[in-house]
Amino acid sequence: MRLTQSSIEGLSAVFVERFGGPPTHLARAPGRVNLLGEHTDYNDLAVLPMALQREARLVFRPRNDGMVVLHDVDPEFDDVEFEILPGIPPGKDGDWGNYVRGPASLLARRFAIWRGFDGVIGSDIPVAAGLSSSTAVVTAVGLALAHINEVPVEARSFAELLAEAERYTGTQGGAMDHTISMGARAGCAAKITFKPPRMRHVQVPADWCFVIADTGRRAEKSGAAKNVYNTRRAECEEAFSFVVEEVVRSDRTRMIPTDYPSLLRAIPAGDLLPVAEDVLRSNLLRRFRHVVTEAARVDEGIDLLRAADTLRFGTLMDASHGSLRSDYLVSTPELDEVVAIAREGGAAGARLTGAGLGGCVVALADRSTVDLVLEALVSEYYEPRRLYDRLDDRLFLAVASDGASVREL
Asked: How far apart are CA 63 and CA 61, in angstroms?
């Protein structure tokens, strides 16, 4: 196999060149594709992602002081160097090094870690594409620091800690990406719930093919898109408070819901939507409608995944994209175009994946149709835009893969 800079051998060679000796450990963390359940995790509602074969890899060697010195083989990203302390000051807005400082700062505060590392990191996850490349960095760095400082790691609780660490960047995201990156199982997607935190693995049918197609428009969740992302979260919280006030006032439930899961347990989504239409203005109604209908799509999708019902699962993906486009307003013309091309090429369904505002589409095909879908995307989207560079990074099939790990080299 041809070695690349993100291969373990390639990273180790760079490490020797920069630090004068070999690395001692490897931490790796996969990206993810979310199949259903977009913008529901920070509302404590279920999601249905799977880990990718694309991952961030960090080769490192522990130090005997508190310094972290990290080199990224991608020349787009500057080296990062800081001392581990509780309350490490962040870099400027959008600085990738904040994904390194975040877990170090939180672990220092929670567990009084003190020991740092020299490291070299590389990734084959497309950056700013909605495939959780940033969370893979947070997870790999967090695992390395935990290992060096003998912090116990249990997948679900550590994922929650990593989600909090990523909020250091200023983006108020949920815990989906970290949970699947930590706990994924090869060959499976996972239904993840958050109150209480649980992960239920579901085998992906052998005939199913998930096509990942990057639009080429970057989705900078920690940069330009951060305000939109944080605004959506605030709108969901505001919509929830108005609806709860009304259901309590009208005596529709004897208990006072404290979050979206308890609200949906008390009153079915079909009964909640008329209430929302009465009390919410335009934008808040759209956000609320997306959240509760998307949660229902996840529950239905689990059953269809088990039944290997390609067409009906694809219909749910189409409905999810429609809701993200019209109610949540996080699609773009490029995402809509790629979805349409994939569907016309023979996909059973397609939707944006990740936060939106750019990035990737995920399309569902089977073994008999996947080549037609790929050919349609190349001829109708990538070739007209001359997006030939690194096409294998822009267009590939997702392979459901294992979660993160750390080991000695």
From this structure: 7
Question: What digits encode the pLDDT tens for the residues 272-321?
Answer: 999 999 999 999 999 999 999 999 999 999 999 999 999 999 999 999 99
CA distances to 53, 60, 123, 135, 379 from 30, in Å: 7, 17, 9, 9, 30
Distance, in Å, from the CA atom of 189 to the CA atom of 317, rounded to the nearest integer, reads 15
Write the single-letter amino acid at 395. L
Question: Does residue 103 contact residue 162 with C-beta atoms inside 8 Å?
Answer: yes
Angle CA(79)–CA(81)–CA(82) in degrees, nearest 5? 155
In order, the DSSP letters of 168-232 are GGS----SHHHHHHHH--TTEEEEEEETTEEEEEEEPPTTEEEEEEE-S----TTTTTHHHHHHH
Taking only the tens place, the pLDDT of each residue in 157-186 is: 999 999 999 988 888 888 999 999 999 999
d(Cα 310, Cα 161) in Å, to the nearest integer? 35
Assigned CATH topology for domain 8-203+401-408: Ribosomal Protein S5; domain 2 (3.30.230)
Between CA 225 and CA 194 the distance in angstroms is: 25
User: What is the CB neighbour count within 10 angstroms for residue 291?
Assistant: 26
C-alpha gyration radius of the chain? 21
Assess whether the previous peptide bond of 384 is cis (omega < 30° from 0). no
The yes-or-no verdict on residue 146 having pLDDT over 80 is yes
Please write the tens of the pLDDT for every residue from 230-253: 999 999 999 999 999 999 999 888
Tokens of 64: 């005997």
CA distance 56 to 58: 7
Please give the positions annotated as active site: 177
Measuring CA to CA, which residue among 24, 21, 19, 20 is closest to residue 8? 24
d(CA 196, CA 194): 5
Task: Assign 197 a pLDDT band (cuts: 50, 70, 90).
Answer: confident
Ramachandran angles phi, psi of 365, nearest 5°: -135, 180
